[in-house]
């Protein structure tokens, strides 16, 4: 299966879900134009409360459509943008990417993976049981966060559903993703 963009979403206000769009523009060093999380420093309210001068390692949130399919099969009412992602992908093991992997999206845009999204209580407020459904345990009993990955924008550009995604891995040794 070819890796690609299923949907793109944004929201100008801090909230849980983002509205699907025909396209979004990524801005280098900032994030998604017109999105509440755009900026060089943290914009997520919990992070701002801790230290508003922290660099924004959460400029663009990506979720794999395969997770949404899994959640729908469990009875959850989720679709592109519902759980707050900017880019919904298909055909990529997002959670298996290493820190520093680069995703070339469409003709121009490049994002660099910074870490995992930590599922938060907003998932539970949206629909009871959703937070637990985005968490799992691996064979060793370690917590697995399935709610997508975060990234920063290296090269801006317009992206839209149907755009291909090409993965560039950093040189080994690869560093496993942790929550950011």
Automatic annotation (TrEMBL):
SUPFAM superfamilies: PK beta-barrel domain-like. It comes from the Bacteria. Pfam families: MOSC. InterPro entries: MoCF_Sase_C (IPR005302), MOSC_domain (IPR052716), Pyrv_Knase-like_insert_dom_sf (IPR011037). Residues 19-168 form the MOSC domain. This is MOSC domain-containing protein YiiM.
């Amino acid at each position: 299966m070819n890796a690609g963009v299923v949907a793109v979403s944004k929201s100008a206000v801090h909230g849980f879900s983002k509205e699907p769009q025909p396209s979004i523009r990524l801005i280098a060093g900032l994030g998604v134009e017109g999105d509440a999380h755009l900026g060089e420093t943290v914009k997520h309210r919990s992070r701002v409360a801790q230290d508003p001068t922290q660099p924004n390692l959460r400029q663009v949130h990506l979720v794999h459509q395969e997770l949404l399919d899994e959640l729908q099969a469990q009875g959850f009412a989720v679709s592109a943008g519902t759980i707050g992602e900017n880019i919904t992908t298909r055909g990529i093991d997002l959670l298996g990417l290493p820190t520093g992997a680069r995703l070339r999206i469409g003709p121009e845009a490049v994002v660099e993976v910074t870490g995992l999204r930590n599922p938060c209580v907003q998932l539970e407020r949206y629909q009871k049981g959703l937070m637990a459904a985005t968490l799992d345990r691996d064979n060793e009993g370690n917590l697995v966060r399935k709610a997508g990955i975060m990234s920063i924008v290296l090269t801006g550009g317009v992206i839209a559903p149907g755009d291909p995604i090409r993965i560039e891995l950093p040189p080994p040794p690869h560093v496993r993703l942790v929550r950011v």
